[in-house]
Write a structure and sequence with these properties.
Elements: E1 8-13, H1 17-28, E2 33-37, H2 44-48, H3 51-65, H4 70-73, H5 85-109, E3 113-116, E4 118-123, E5 126-131, E6 134-145, E7 149-151, E8 164-166, E9 179-183, H6 187-198, E10 202-207, H7 218-230, E11 234-237, E12 241-247, E13 250-255, E14 260-263, E15 265-268, E16 272-274, E17 307-309, H8 320-334, E18 348-350, E19 356-360, H9 363-368, E20 374-379, H10 384-389, E21 395-400, E22 407-413, H11 417-429, H12 434-439, H13 450-466
Parallel strand pairs: 1-2, 1-6, 2-3, 6-17, 8-15, 9-10, 9-15, 10-11
Antiparallel strand pairs: 4-5, 5-6, 7-16, 12-13, 13-14, 18-19, 19-22, 20-21, 21-22
């Protein structure tokens, strides 16, 4: 059938970051595009229960607790002493509402049709939409699945949406708990553990692996653990949860080792499950794995050439930023347009307190691959801006090739890490060397100056090595 025989050139299921960018990308190519999404989920998981709420919550915690200012005003400093859930959620709900309107406006401005309802495949080119009071079928030449994920819930755990919750339920707590067990030390688990610890909750993190955030720089992870312990976080690594019992006074989490941990609330962060169960993938000739994820190739095509999948539903790295780019690229590939992906220098941002961000390779990866490198470090306490903002613990690390002087990795820990990493990313993407960071002028006083300090540090080490070259 010719493409003109379909209702749309591109149909997207899901309006999260990946779905938005796929539909808008197609529209900018002059194609007819539509997005199918449930009424109460415009903007997807990202806007409603994931990235936007959790990051807004983090900002509210930082502000109301005065945590970032205690270096200057003392450890007892707080903006508000009795912080309530309502204090935190007021800011969160405001931002969510604004973001939903931004998504709607962007789709409308680009002439992308928004079809409200739940979509499922009827055949490889047809999607049935069950909406409020109506049922319709839409055909499309190309389809992008961008349905995102939902928190995985172990079958042996009884979730009651009050005492035992997942990362969605944590946003609906009626009060800030005095104590909490966080099961799982992945990105989401550690982000929420740090937020509640900052609020004064006694947090215990249980993780079956021997380490947390294994994909990050080990020195940065150790720094984060130190600061979380300073906020009274207890870590139980190499431990598995055997059962969680709910009583009138809270919960008791029993570990396989026999330890019992009492807490007011338990939050499970046991990974994510792809939202594919009701999609009717079999009708399109597709299938998902045991975690509901869809397999794609380098162009984000599934095993059915005209069906693409992007975002969390395809697995790692499952970040809003990478999902956006995947959606953009999928729409380009769908219509045979040239596309370039800088996958090797995609940044990773982890919004713990303090935050972490990195780009490129880690010391562990370089060592395993026998790639020589030298390290340059700058510490925020040596920067005027670090003193001004009250951050004495932050650091920036550069990994540099002694042979080419190119930057192999950038790792940042502390205030503004997720923003600062982009300077190093840009230099890496343009093939620049550490000499650019030495020669350029940074505004003063800024945290960006950390790049120059780290660049000078590594340059001095390389100069010392050069003296021994025979």
């Amino acid at each position: 059938m010719d493409d003109t025989g379909y209702d749309y050139d591109l149909l997207v299921i899901g309006s999260g970051p990946g779905g938005q960018k796929a539909a808008i990308g197609a529209a900018k190519l002059g194609k007819r595009a539509c997005v199918v999404e449930r009424r109460n989920m415009i903007g997807g998981v990202c806007v409603n229960t994931g990235t936007i709420p959790s990051k807004t919550l983090r900002e509210a915690v930082l502000y109301l607790t005065g945590l970032s200012m205690r270096e200057l005003y003392g450890q007892s400093y707080r903006v508000k002493h009795e912080i309530t859930v309502q204090d935190l959620l007021a800011r969160t709900q405001h931002v969510i509402g604004r973001e939903v309107e931004v998504v709607r406006a962007q789709l409308f401005r680009n002439h992308v049709d928004l079809v409200v309802g739940t979509g499922r495949f009827v055949d490889p080119h047809t999607v049935a939409v069950d909406g409020p009071g109506e049922h319709r079928q839409i055909t499309a030449a190309n389809v992008v699945v961008a349905t995102g994920t939902t928190p995985a819930r172990p079958a042996h755990v009884e979730f009651d949406e009050g005492r035992v919750v997942d990362s969605d339920g944590i946003l609906t707590l009626e009060r800030i708990p005095d104590s909490m067990v966080v099961v799982g030390a992945g990105v989401i688990g550690i982000e929420y553990a740090s937020m509640f610890a900052a609020l004064g909750t006694r947090v215990t993190v249980v993780e079956k692996r021997a380490q947390m955030l294994e994909f990050c720089d080990p020195e940065v992870v150790e720094s984060l653990k130190f600061h979380l312990r300073d906020l009274s976080v207890t870590f139980r690594f190499g431990e598995e949860v055997e059962k969680v019992e709910i009583g009138s006074h809270g919960t008791v989490t029993t570990l396989a080792s026999g330890k019992r941990v009492p807490a007011e609330t338990v939050m499970y962060s046991a990974g994510r499950q792809g939202l594919t169960a009701g999609l009717g993938l079999e009708n399109a000739g597709l299938e998902a794995d045991s975690r509901g994820r869809i397999t794609v190739d380098a162009q984000y095509r599934t095993t059915v050439p005209h069906v693409f999948a992007v975002g969390d539903v395809i697995g790692f790295p499952a970040l809003a930023a990478t999902s956006m780019d995947q959606g953009r690229l999928a729409s380009l590939h769908a219509f045979g347009e040239p596309a370039n992906e800088l996958r090797e220098i995609q940044p990773i941002g982890i919004y713990t307190i303090p935050e972490i961000s990195y780009c490129g390779r880690t010391e562990v990866e370089l060592t395993q691959d026998a790639v020589p490198y030298e390290v340059g470090i700058s510490r925020y306490r040596e920067l005027a801006r670090g003193q001004i903002v009250g951050d004495s613990y932050g650091m920036l690390k550069l990994l540099v090739s002694p042979a080419t002087r190119q930057i192999l990795g950038v790792h940042v820990f502390g205030t503004g890490a997720a923003d600062l990493v982009h300077i190093g990313q840009a230099v890496m993407g343009c093939g620049g060397t550490v000499d650019y960071l030495v020669d350029t002028v940074f505004n003063y006083p800024t945290l960006s100056e950390a790049y120059k300090v780290a660049a000078l540090d590594v340059t001095n080490k390389l100069r010392a090595l050069d003296r021994f070259d025979l």
